[in-house]
Amino acid sequence: MSIYRKIEESQTLLINNQSKNLEGLQKKVFKFGFGQSPFLPPVQVMEALKANVHRKEYGSVQGDPELRQLISDFHFKVNGLKVAADNVMIAPGSKILIYTILLSFKKADVFIPAPAWVSYAPQAKLAGHNIIPVGTSFAKRWRVTPESMENAFAKKKHEVSIMILNYPGNPDGLTYSKPELEQIAKKARELDILVIADEIYGLLSHNNEHHSFANFYPEKTITTTGLSKWCGAGGWRLGVALLYEGIEDEFKKALIGIASETYSCAATPIQMAAKVAYGNVENALEFSRRQCHILAKVGNYCYHELVQSGVKLYPPEGGFYLFPDFSNYIEKLNKAGIYTSSDLCERILSETGVALLPGSAFGMDENQFTARLSYVDFEDPLQKTDFKLERDCPKMIEGIQALKNWLALL
Ligand SMILES: Cc1ncc(COP(=O)(O)O)c(C=O)c1O
Protein backbone atom coordinates (compact mmCIF):
# COMPACT_ATOMS: atom_id res chain seq x y z
CA MET A 1 0.00 0.00 0.00
CA SER A 2 1.37 3.35 -0.96
CA ILE A 3 1.84 5.96 1.75
CA TYR A 4 1.04 8.68 -0.78
CA ARG A 5 -2.25 10.17 -1.89
CA LYS A 6 -3.37 8.89 -5.24
CA ILE A 7 -3.82 12.02 -7.28
CA GLU A 8 -2.74 12.31 -10.86
CA GLU A 9 -1.40 15.30 -12.73
CA SER A 10 -4.31 17.29 -14.10
CA GLN A 11 -5.21 15.74 -17.47
CA THR A 12 -5.31 19.10 -19.20
CA LEU A 13 -1.69 19.75 -18.32
CA LEU A 14 -0.74 16.20 -19.24
CA ILE A 15 -2.07 16.44 -22.82
CA ASN A 16 -0.10 19.66 -23.21
CA ASN A 17 3.08 17.77 -22.29
CA GLN A 18 2.29 14.91 -24.68
CA SER A 19 1.68 17.42 -27.45
CA LYS A 20 5.01 19.11 -26.68
CA ASN A 21 6.78 15.72 -26.87
CA LEU A 22 5.31 15.09 -30.31
CA GLU A 23 6.36 18.55 -31.42
CA GLY A 24 9.85 17.76 -30.16
CA LEU A 25 9.83 14.89 -32.67
CA GLN A 26 9.11 17.49 -35.39
CA LYS A 27 5.49 16.31 -35.75
CA LYS A 28 2.76 18.83 -36.43
CA VAL A 29 0.38 19.02 -33.49
CA PHE A 30 -3.04 20.65 -33.49
CA LYS A 31 -3.38 21.78 -29.91
CA PHE A 32 -7.09 21.28 -29.35
CA GLY A 33 -6.46 19.67 -25.98
CA PHE A 34 -5.40 22.52 -23.76
CA GLY A 35 -7.86 25.32 -23.12
CA GLN A 36 -5.99 28.57 -22.87
CA SER A 37 -7.13 31.94 -24.15
CA PRO A 38 -5.31 32.88 -27.37
CA PHE A 39 -5.89 36.59 -26.67
CA LEU A 40 -3.42 38.97 -25.05
CA PRO A 41 -4.76 41.03 -22.14
CA PRO A 42 -5.77 44.60 -23.08
CA VAL A 43 -2.74 46.88 -23.58
CA GLN A 44 -3.63 49.22 -20.70
CA VAL A 45 -3.86 46.22 -18.35
CA MET A 46 -0.41 44.98 -19.43
CA GLU A 47 0.99 48.50 -18.99
CA ALA A 48 -0.42 48.60 -15.47
CA LEU A 49 1.33 45.35 -14.65
CA LYS A 50 4.64 46.72 -15.96
CA ALA A 51 4.21 49.89 -13.94
CA ASN A 52 3.68 47.93 -10.75
CA VAL A 53 6.57 45.47 -10.71
CA HIS A 54 8.04 47.32 -7.74
CA ARG A 55 4.97 46.47 -5.66
CA LYS A 56 6.74 43.64 -3.92
CA GLU A 57 4.86 43.69 -0.63
CA TYR A 58 2.47 41.04 0.63
CA GLY A 59 -1.12 42.17 0.42
CA SER A 60 -4.17 41.51 2.54
CA VAL A 61 -5.35 37.88 2.51
CA GLN A 62 -8.80 38.72 1.21
CA GLY A 63 -7.46 41.03 -1.48
CA ASP A 64 -6.72 44.72 -1.99
CA PRO A 65 -9.74 46.66 -0.62
CA GLU A 66 -9.87 49.08 -3.54
CA LEU A 67 -9.79 46.19 -6.03
CA ARG A 68 -12.52 44.38 -4.10
CA GLN A 69 -14.70 47.48 -4.39
CA LEU A 70 -14.03 47.72 -8.13
CA ILE A 71 -14.93 44.06 -8.57
CA SER A 72 -18.10 44.53 -6.55
CA ASP A 73 -19.11 47.50 -8.77
CA PHE A 74 -18.12 45.61 -11.91
CA HIS A 75 -20.31 42.58 -11.23
CA PHE A 76 -23.18 44.81 -10.18
CA LYS A 77 -23.06 46.62 -13.52
CA VAL A 78 -22.34 43.56 -15.65
CA ASN A 79 -24.38 40.84 -13.90
CA GLY A 80 -26.68 42.71 -11.54
CA LEU A 81 -25.03 41.04 -8.55
CA LYS A 82 -25.16 42.87 -5.24
CA VAL A 83 -22.04 41.71 -3.44
CA ALA A 84 -20.44 44.00 -0.87
CA ALA A 85 -16.69 44.55 -1.26
CA ASP A 86 -16.34 42.86 2.10
CA ASN A 87 -17.73 39.68 0.53
CA VAL A 88 -15.30 39.68 -2.39
CA MET A 89 -12.30 37.36 -2.08
CA ILE A 90 -9.31 37.63 -4.37
CA ALA A 91 -6.79 34.81 -4.77
CA PRO A 92 -4.15 33.46 -7.16
CA GLY A 93 -6.76 31.93 -9.47
CA SER A 94 -10.34 30.80 -9.00
CA LYS A 95 -9.15 27.19 -8.87
CA ILE A 96 -7.61 27.68 -5.43
CA LEU A 97 -10.74 29.53 -4.33
CA ILE A 98 -12.95 26.57 -5.26
CA TYR A 99 -10.58 24.34 -3.32
CA THR A 100 -10.61 26.73 -0.35
CA ILE A 101 -14.42 26.66 -0.32
CA LEU A 102 -14.40 22.85 -0.42
CA LEU A 103 -11.74 22.65 2.32
CA SER A 104 -13.81 24.86 4.61
CA PHE A 105 -16.14 21.94 5.27
CA LYS A 106 -15.12 18.92 7.30
CA LYS A 107 -17.31 16.53 5.36
CA ALA A 108 -19.73 17.17 2.54
CA ASP A 109 -21.47 15.56 -0.39
CA VAL A 110 -20.18 17.31 -3.48
CA PHE A 111 -22.50 17.11 -6.48
CA ILE A 112 -20.52 17.31 -9.69
CA PRO A 113 -22.21 17.19 -13.10
CA ALA A 114 -20.78 14.76 -15.65
CA PRO A 115 -19.31 16.14 -17.81
CA ALA A 116 -17.63 18.87 -15.77
CA TRP A 117 -14.25 20.55 -15.53
CA VAL A 118 -11.41 18.14 -14.71
CA SER A 119 -10.34 19.58 -11.36
CA TYR A 120 -13.58 19.58 -9.35
CA ALA A 121 -13.57 15.87 -8.53
CA PRO A 122 -9.86 15.65 -7.58
CA GLN A 123 -10.28 18.76 -5.40
CA ALA A 124 -13.35 17.30 -3.65
CA LYS A 125 -11.43 14.05 -3.16
CA LEU A 126 -8.40 15.87 -1.69
CA ALA A 127 -10.73 17.72 0.67
CA GLY A 128 -12.02 14.33 1.85
CA HIS A 129 -15.57 14.75 0.58
CA ASN A 130 -18.02 12.30 -0.92
CA ILE A 131 -18.42 12.88 -4.65
CA ILE A 132 -21.86 12.33 -6.17
CA PRO A 133 -22.05 12.70 -9.96
CA VAL A 134 -25.06 14.46 -11.44
CA GLY A 135 -25.84 12.66 -14.68
CA THR A 136 -26.50 14.56 -17.90
CA SER A 137 -26.94 13.38 -21.47
CA PHE A 138 -26.47 14.51 -25.03
CA ALA A 139 -30.26 14.64 -25.42
CA LYS A 140 -30.46 17.11 -22.51
CA ARG A 141 -27.56 19.18 -23.89
CA TRP A 142 -25.33 17.97 -21.04
CA ARG A 143 -27.39 20.20 -18.72
CA VAL A 144 -28.21 19.64 -15.06
CA THR A 145 -31.97 19.48 -14.48
CA PRO A 146 -34.08 19.46 -11.32
CA GLU A 147 -34.73 15.74 -11.99
CA SER A 148 -31.04 14.87 -12.25
CA MET A 149 -30.38 16.84 -9.05
CA GLU A 150 -33.15 14.93 -7.33
CA ASN A 151 -31.73 11.58 -8.51
CA ALA A 152 -28.25 12.48 -7.32
CA PHE A 153 -29.59 13.77 -4.03
CA ALA A 154 -31.03 10.33 -3.27
CA LYS A 155 -27.39 9.20 -2.76
CA LYS A 156 -26.68 11.88 -0.18
CA LYS A 157 -24.79 10.78 2.96
CA HIS A 158 -23.78 13.95 4.80
CA GLU A 159 -25.36 17.03 6.26
CA VAL A 160 -23.67 19.49 3.92
CA SER A 161 -24.45 19.46 0.19
CA ILE A 162 -22.39 21.42 -2.31
CA MET A 163 -23.06 21.52 -6.05
CA ILE A 164 -20.70 22.97 -8.62
CA LEU A 165 -22.43 24.50 -11.60
CA ASN A 166 -20.29 25.82 -14.42
CA TYR A 167 -21.52 27.77 -17.43
CA PRO A 168 -20.66 28.67 -20.12
CA GLY A 169 -19.30 25.19 -19.70
CA ASN A 170 -15.97 23.56 -19.82
CA PRO A 171 -16.00 21.02 -21.52
CA ASP A 172 -19.33 21.50 -23.35
CA GLY A 173 -19.26 25.17 -24.44
CA LEU A 174 -22.95 25.47 -23.58
CA THR A 175 -24.81 27.76 -21.24
CA TYR A 176 -28.16 27.78 -19.41
CA SER A 177 -31.26 29.79 -20.25
CA LYS A 178 -32.95 31.94 -17.62
CA PRO A 179 -35.87 29.49 -17.13
CA GLU A 180 -33.42 26.59 -16.73
CA LEU A 181 -31.50 28.51 -14.07
CA GLU A 182 -34.72 29.41 -12.27
CA GLN A 183 -35.67 25.75 -12.09
CA ILE A 184 -32.25 24.67 -10.84
CA ALA A 185 -32.32 27.44 -8.23
CA LYS A 186 -35.74 26.32 -7.07
CA LYS A 187 -34.53 22.76 -6.62
CA ALA A 188 -31.29 23.89 -4.93
CA ARG A 189 -33.34 25.92 -2.46
CA GLU A 190 -35.64 22.99 -1.79
CA LEU A 191 -32.67 20.66 -1.21
CA ASP A 192 -30.67 23.30 0.71
CA ILE A 193 -27.57 23.04 -1.46
CA LEU A 194 -24.62 25.43 -1.39
CA VAL A 195 -23.93 26.21 -5.03
CA ILE A 196 -20.52 27.16 -6.36
CA ALA A 197 -21.40 28.91 -9.62
CA ASP A 198 -18.21 28.73 -11.67
CA GLU A 199 -18.76 31.62 -14.07
CA ILE A 200 -15.16 32.02 -15.17
CA TYR A 201 -16.37 32.06 -18.82
CA GLY A 202 -19.32 34.37 -18.11
CA LEU A 203 -17.91 37.29 -20.08
CA LEU A 204 -17.22 34.98 -23.00
CA SER A 205 -20.87 34.12 -23.56
CA HIS A 206 -20.97 34.39 -27.34
CA ASN A 207 -24.19 36.38 -27.53
CA ASN A 208 -22.83 38.61 -24.73
CA GLU A 209 -25.65 37.55 -22.45
CA HIS A 210 -24.88 35.77 -19.22
CA HIS A 211 -27.26 35.27 -16.32
CA SER A 212 -25.48 34.85 -13.01
CA PHE A 213 -26.85 32.03 -10.88
CA ALA A 214 -26.67 34.16 -7.73
CA ASN A 215 -29.47 36.31 -9.19
CA PHE A 216 -31.77 33.30 -8.83
CA TYR A 217 -30.38 31.82 -5.62
CA PRO A 218 -28.73 34.73 -3.81
CA GLU A 219 -28.91 33.22 -0.35
CA LYS A 220 -26.50 30.32 -0.93
CA THR A 221 -24.47 30.84 -4.09
CA ILE A 222 -20.79 31.62 -4.26
CA THR A 223 -19.80 32.84 -7.70
CA THR A 224 -16.24 32.22 -8.86
CA THR A 225 -14.65 34.14 -11.69
CA GLY A 226 -11.43 36.03 -12.47
CA LEU A 227 -9.08 37.33 -15.12
CA SER A 228 -8.03 34.00 -16.64
CA LYS A 229 -10.51 33.75 -19.50
CA TRP A 230 -12.10 37.06 -20.52
CA CYS A 231 -8.90 38.98 -19.86
CA GLY A 232 -6.64 36.34 -21.42
CA ALA A 233 -4.47 36.24 -18.30
CA GLY A 234 -4.59 32.64 -17.02
CA GLY A 235 -0.92 32.61 -16.10
CA TRP A 236 -1.22 35.80 -14.09
CA ARG A 237 -3.31 33.90 -11.57
CA LEU A 238 -6.06 36.22 -10.41
CA GLY A 239 -9.31 34.66 -9.28
CA VAL A 240 -12.35 36.05 -7.54
CA ALA A 241 -15.03 34.60 -5.29
CA LEU A 242 -18.25 36.54 -4.67
CA LEU A 243 -19.64 35.33 -1.35
CA TYR A 244 -23.30 35.64 -0.46
CA GLU A 245 -24.78 38.27 1.82
CA GLY A 246 -25.21 36.95 5.32
CA ILE A 247 -22.57 34.25 4.86
CA GLU A 248 -22.10 32.40 8.13
CA ASP A 249 -19.28 33.93 10.23
CA GLU A 250 -17.68 30.56 10.83
CA PHE A 251 -17.67 29.78 7.10
CA LYS A 252 -16.07 33.10 6.20
CA LYS A 253 -13.48 32.70 8.95
CA ALA A 254 -12.65 29.24 7.63
CA LEU A 255 -12.22 30.63 4.11
CA ILE A 256 -9.90 33.44 5.20
CA GLY A 257 -8.10 31.13 7.63
CA ILE A 258 -7.34 28.54 4.94
CA ALA A 259 -6.29 31.29 2.53
CA SER A 260 -3.94 32.81 5.12
CA GLU A 261 -2.34 29.45 5.92
CA THR A 262 -1.83 28.45 2.31
CA TYR A 263 -1.54 30.96 -0.54
CA SER A 264 -1.43 34.16 1.64
CA CYS A 265 -2.59 36.55 -1.07
CA ALA A 266 -2.73 37.15 -4.81
CA ALA A 267 0.43 38.76 -6.24
CA THR A 268 0.36 42.49 -5.58
CA PRO A 269 1.42 43.71 -9.08
CA ILE A 270 -1.29 41.49 -10.61
CA GLN A 271 -3.89 42.99 -8.29
CA MET A 272 -2.78 46.47 -9.38
CA ALA A 273 -3.20 45.48 -13.03
CA ALA A 274 -6.59 43.95 -12.19
CA LYS A 275 -7.72 47.39 -10.99
CA VAL A 276 -7.36 48.60 -14.56
CA ALA A 277 -9.09 45.49 -15.96
CA TYR A 278 -12.07 45.83 -13.61
CA GLY A 279 -12.00 49.61 -13.36
CA ASN A 280 -13.51 50.34 -16.75
CA VAL A 281 -16.62 48.29 -17.42
CA GLU A 282 -17.19 49.60 -20.95
CA ASN A 283 -13.64 48.72 -22.02
CA ALA A 284 -13.99 45.25 -20.50
CA LEU A 285 -17.30 44.63 -22.25
CA GLU A 286 -15.98 45.88 -25.57
CA PHE A 287 -12.90 43.67 -25.21
CA SER A 288 -15.12 40.67 -24.45
CA ARG A 289 -17.41 41.42 -27.39
CA ARG A 290 -14.48 41.45 -29.80
CA GLN A 291 -13.22 38.11 -28.49
CA CYS A 292 -16.69 36.57 -28.60
CA HIS A 293 -17.14 37.64 -32.22
CA ILE A 294 -14.01 35.68 -33.15
CA LEU A 295 -14.65 32.71 -30.85
CA ALA A 296 -18.18 32.27 -32.20
CA LYS A 297 -16.87 32.22 -35.78
CA VAL A 298 -14.17 29.64 -35.03
CA GLY A 299 -16.42 27.50 -32.84
CA ASN A 300 -19.22 27.48 -35.39
CA TYR A 301 -16.83 26.52 -38.18
CA CYS A 302 -15.70 23.47 -36.14
CA TYR A 303 -19.28 22.66 -35.20
CA HIS A 304 -20.61 22.72 -38.77
CA GLU A 305 -17.71 20.71 -40.16
CA LEU A 306 -17.94 17.98 -37.53
CA VAL A 307 -21.71 17.71 -37.69
CA GLN A 308 -21.38 17.14 -41.46
CA SER A 309 -19.28 14.10 -40.60
CA GLY A 310 -21.99 12.65 -38.39
CA VAL A 311 -20.49 13.71 -35.08
CA LYS A 312 -23.14 14.53 -32.45
CA LEU A 313 -22.59 18.08 -31.30
CA TYR A 314 -24.33 21.31 -30.25
CA PRO A 315 -23.39 24.74 -31.59
CA PRO A 316 -21.08 26.64 -29.21
CA GLU A 317 -22.61 29.20 -26.87
CA GLY A 318 -19.70 30.42 -24.78
CA GLY A 319 -16.04 30.03 -23.90
CA PHE A 320 -13.89 28.06 -26.33
CA TYR A 321 -14.83 24.41 -26.10
CA LEU A 322 -16.90 21.84 -27.95
CA PHE A 323 -17.81 18.43 -26.62
CA PRO A 324 -18.18 16.13 -29.65
CA ASP A 325 -19.87 12.77 -29.14
CA PHE A 326 -18.53 10.15 -31.56
CA SER A 327 -21.06 7.46 -30.64
CA ASN A 328 -22.40 7.29 -34.20
CA TYR A 329 -19.02 5.77 -35.07
CA ILE A 330 -19.12 3.11 -32.37
CA GLU A 331 -19.01 0.08 -34.69
CA LYS A 332 -16.26 1.48 -36.85
CA LEU A 333 -14.27 2.52 -33.80
CA ASN A 334 -14.59 -0.94 -32.23
CA LYS A 335 -13.49 -2.52 -35.51
CA ALA A 336 -10.43 -0.30 -35.42
CA GLY A 337 -9.67 -1.59 -31.89
CA ILE A 338 -10.88 1.57 -30.14
CA TYR A 339 -13.03 0.85 -27.09
CA THR A 340 -12.70 3.87 -24.83
CA SER A 341 -12.60 7.65 -25.07
CA SER A 342 -8.94 7.50 -24.01
CA ASP A 343 -8.13 5.02 -26.83
CA LEU A 344 -9.96 7.36 -29.18
CA CYS A 345 -7.93 10.44 -28.21
CA GLU A 346 -4.63 8.56 -28.21
CA ARG A 347 -5.26 7.18 -31.70
CA ILE A 348 -6.44 10.53 -33.05
CA LEU A 349 -3.35 12.25 -31.62
CA SER A 350 -0.88 9.71 -32.94
CA GLU A 351 -2.54 9.31 -36.38
CA THR A 352 -3.50 12.91 -37.15
CA GLY A 353 -1.61 15.13 -34.67
CA VAL A 354 -4.97 16.44 -33.34
CA ALA A 355 -4.87 16.67 -29.54
CA LEU A 356 -8.24 16.24 -27.81
CA LEU A 357 -9.02 15.40 -24.19
CA PRO A 358 -11.06 12.23 -23.54
CA GLY A 359 -14.54 12.58 -22.06
CA SER A 360 -13.40 10.34 -19.20
CA ALA A 361 -11.24 13.24 -17.92
CA PHE A 362 -14.50 15.11 -17.36
CA GLY A 363 -16.27 12.35 -15.45
CA MET A 364 -17.87 10.61 -18.44
CA ASP A 365 -17.91 6.84 -18.87
CA GLU A 366 -14.89 5.63 -20.85
CA ASN A 367 -17.16 3.79 -23.30
CA GLN A 368 -19.12 6.91 -24.23
CA PHE A 369 -16.78 8.15 -26.95
CA THR A 370 -16.88 11.80 -26.04
CA ALA A 371 -13.97 14.26 -26.11
CA ARG A 372 -13.28 17.91 -25.49
CA LEU A 373 -12.09 20.07 -28.32
CA SER A 374 -10.65 23.53 -27.52
CA TYR A 375 -10.82 25.71 -30.61
CA VAL A 376 -8.08 28.13 -29.67
CA ASP A 377 -5.04 26.98 -31.64
CA PHE A 378 -4.46 30.36 -33.28
CA GLU A 379 -2.51 33.56 -32.64
CA ASP A 380 -4.28 36.60 -31.18
CA PRO A 381 -5.94 38.31 -34.17
CA LEU A 382 -7.24 41.30 -32.17
CA GLN A 383 -4.53 43.66 -33.39
CA LYS A 384 -5.71 43.23 -37.00
CA THR A 385 -8.42 45.44 -38.44
CA ASP A 386 -10.62 42.50 -39.38
CA PHE A 387 -10.87 38.79 -38.76
CA LYS A 388 -10.67 36.15 -41.46
CA LEU A 389 -10.94 32.54 -40.42
CA GLU A 390 -8.86 31.21 -43.34
CA ARG A 391 -6.09 33.74 -42.81
CA ASP A 392 -6.07 33.90 -39.01
CA CYS A 393 -6.85 30.31 -37.99
CA PRO A 394 -5.16 28.00 -40.52
CA LYS A 395 -4.34 25.38 -37.90
CA MET A 396 -7.96 25.18 -36.79
CA ILE A 397 -9.04 24.47 -40.37
CA GLU A 398 -6.24 22.00 -41.06
CA GLY A 399 -6.79 20.15 -37.77
CA ILE A 400 -10.55 19.87 -38.18
CA GLN A 401 -10.10 18.60 -41.75
CA ALA A 402 -7.52 16.06 -40.52
CA LEU A 403 -10.02 14.84 -37.93
CA LYS A 404 -12.78 14.59 -40.55
CA ASN A 405 -10.50 12.64 -42.90
CA TRP A 406 -9.57 10.27 -40.10
CA LEU A 407 -13.25 9.62 -39.40
CA ALA A 408 -13.98 9.13 -43.11
CA LEU A 409 -11.25 6.51 -43.38
CA LEU A 410 -12.35 4.49 -40.35
C1 LIG B 1 -14.35 25.67 -15.74
C2 LIG B 1 -13.12 26.24 -15.16
N1 LIG B 1 -13.14 26.64 -13.88
C3 LIG B 1 -12.05 27.17 -13.29
C4 LIG B 1 -10.86 27.28 -13.98
C5 LIG B 1 -9.67 27.82 -13.25
O1 LIG B 1 -9.42 29.10 -13.57
P1 LIG B 1 -8.33 29.99 -12.81
O2 LIG B 1 -7.29 30.27 -13.81
O3 LIG B 1 -9.09 31.19 -12.34
O4 LIG B 1 -7.81 29.20 -11.65
C6 LIG B 1 -10.78 26.86 -15.31
C7 LIG B 1 -9.50 26.95 -16.04
O5 LIG B 1 -9.23 26.30 -16.99
C8 LIG B 1 -11.94 26.33 -15.92
O6 LIG B 1 -11.94 25.93 -17.18
What does this structure look like?
By secondary structure, the chain is α/β, with parallel strands linked by helices. It folds into two domains: 11-40 and 283-408, Aspartate Aminotransferase, domain 1; 43-280, Aspartate Aminotransferase, domain 2 (3-Layer(aba) Sandwich), CATH 3.40.640. It contains 14 helices and twelve strands. The chain has helices at residues 11-24, 43-51, 65-79, 94-103, 120-126, 146-153, 178-191, 249-261, 268-279, 281-308, 330-335, 341-352, 389-392, 394-408, and strands at 30-31, 88-91, 108-114, 130-135, 160-166, 194-198, 221-226, 239-242, 321-322, 354-355, 357-358, 371-374. The strands form three sheets. A seven-stranded mixed beta sheet has the order 2-8-7-6-5-3-4, sandwiched between helices. Pyridoxal-5'-phosphate binds next to helix 4.
Quick description:
With 410 residues, this protein is α/β, with parallel strands linked by helices. It has helices spanning 11-24, 43-51, 65-79, 94-103, 120-126, 146-153, 178-191, 249-261, 268-279, 281-308, 330-335, 341-352, 389-392, 394-408; strands spanning 30-31, 88-91, 108-114, 130-135, 160-166, 194-198, 221-226, 239-242, 321-322, 354-355, 357-358, 371-374.
Low-pLDDT segments, ≥5 res: none
Write the CATH homologous superfamily of the largest domain: Type I PLP-dependent aspartate aminotransferase-like (Major domain)
Q: Which small molecules are bound?
A: pyridoxal-5'-phosphate
Radius of gyration: 21 Å
Helix content: 40-55%
Neighbour order of strands in the largest sheet: 2-8-7-6-5-3-4
Main sheet summary: 7 strands, mixed
Care to count the β-strands?
12
Oligomeric status: single chain
